[in-house]
């Protein structure tokens, strides 16, 4: 089986004091290495929820999550954290860089806890690759929005993940800057065989995607 | 790569902690100030106790090793006989026995004169040291002059003085006795025992090598001399010194207890600071967890922050406490070096340990709280 990540009959329900919200309803989904998939849909349709389940940040109420062919649905918190570190890179809409750390240190964060002698080298190379070789020691408040997002992309890639998950990666960027980030995604998935799954409202992303899926009320259309 | 960078690489929690603390310098500074005050309070109150104790024991001298035997007037016994003294000599442990016959008299040298206490002793060397001249083992002729008396008479070894009409050559001027003593030589003269009128002795001083020997001697003397009737009073100075030591022990505990309260207050302020800063950093911690940082590492990071606050406060507090101790000792004891005693360093160590301990303990709850928040919750604003 060549799927790097797969959801089988995944349900996610939230109990909000009496009323049960079904954020995901019987979702079947998979992505292959090097594939670029976008997830679209109206607000509240369950896109972020799905991404969190894919990223092992959240567990489904029902159904199975397979990561690289292995069932990871019922792992412990520590095991999930280890899997996240090994397989998954996250990119958030609002970047979520750590303001006290330099660009380079931010990229190193996922490698920080644990013995990793080549981390600095990889972080430097990645920042050069995303065009920030001359901004290594800038703090986030000294960078523009697009630059911050590129630092976030470098951070997501530093542990050489197999899957890149992005929740509205261009939501806070203008068209042009957004396009440069998307070009970066395209390059990464081609060169590094990374599966890119991006949630978006931005129609320009679909131009880059191999596949677009649409969620409505927690169901894939 | 510098040493610090190297340390940060090896203990990444420290790097994160250091950066987080520098984020809000005033808040961190105030938290450190609390610890400084607490550490300073504990250490300097402890050292204050040491200073009091040192001052008191300087006053008391070595009297803990002395016992005094005097006749029991209530039983009609007015003086101790040769036989009593011989009996005392027989029973004491590791001690020298000095029998004293006391009188008062007029001392003159040229135009100068003064009234002094006259001690008749055979072996004053067991009790006194010379400041000038030599104290003989057996005093057969000549006189030992106390420092106060020597000053009044302007006398020094080799001079002659007359005591109640009899002429003596001065063998030695005795060192000034700083502490409390039952046969204080400062304003006295010591002459051969035969030269003082009488046959018996007014008191017997037993000078032992240790407090333990003094205690055993006292028990033995009571058993042998007071067997049939209460012939003698045995006065142990050790009882006083023990009481005083106990008192200072209690005083010190009390002082340190007061100091500890301020540390508890400091601990609460650290708890508050850490709680606020972890709540502010909720999302950041969520990101850390999302990118693969384990719960334990988050806990370590926040404890490192609290620990750093404690270490900073502890080190600064210790330095200030040392300064306070030096000031106190040069003021009270006139001896700033008296600060550098093992006990004082123990107090400082104790205070710093308490300071760091309180900080880390106060960091535990915020750390636990931050680490147990699910990253999905933290990342959703
Ligand atoms: N922790 C939660 N408790 C209760 N309900 C939740 C929780 N998280 C999500 N939901 C609900 O699940 C549904 C899906 O939410 P989700 O965040 O996945 O939507 P989304 O598609 O990402 O929307 P948007 O485009 O606005 O980001 C929503 O109805 C939301 O209210
Ligand atoms: Mg969303």
UniProtKB/TrEMBL annotation, chain A:
Keyword match Repeat: no
Pfam family, one: ABC_tran
Domain ABC transporter: 5-221
InterPro entries in the record: AAA+_ATPase, ABC_transporter-like_ATP-bd, ABC_transporter-like_CS, ABC_transpr_LolD-like, MacB-like_ATP-bd, P-loop_NTPase
Keywords of the record: ATP-binding, Nucleotide-binding, Transport
PANTHER family: ABC TRANSPORTER ABCH.1, IMPORT ATP-BINDING PROTEIN
Protein name per its UniProtKB record: ATP-binding cassette domain-containing protein
TrEMBL record, chain B:
One Pfam family of this chain: MacB_PCD
One GO cellular component term noted in the UniProt record for this chain: plasma membrane
Keywords: Cell membrane, Membrane, Transmembrane, Transmembrane helix
Membrane topology, as annotated: Multi-pass membrane protein
Top-level taxon: Archaea
InterPro entries reported for this sequence: ABC3_permease_C, MacB_PCD, Macrolide_Exporter_MacB
Stretches that traverse the bilayer: 28-49, 247-275, 308-333, 345-365
Subcellular location per the Swiss-Prot or TrEMBL entry: Cell membrane
Domain MacB-like periplasmic core: from-to ranges: 28-221
MF annotations from Gene Ontology: transmembrane transporter activity
Domain ABC3 transporter permease C-terminal: 258-373
Record-stated family: Belongs to the ABC-4 integral membrane protein family.
Protein name, as recorded: FtsX-like permease family protein
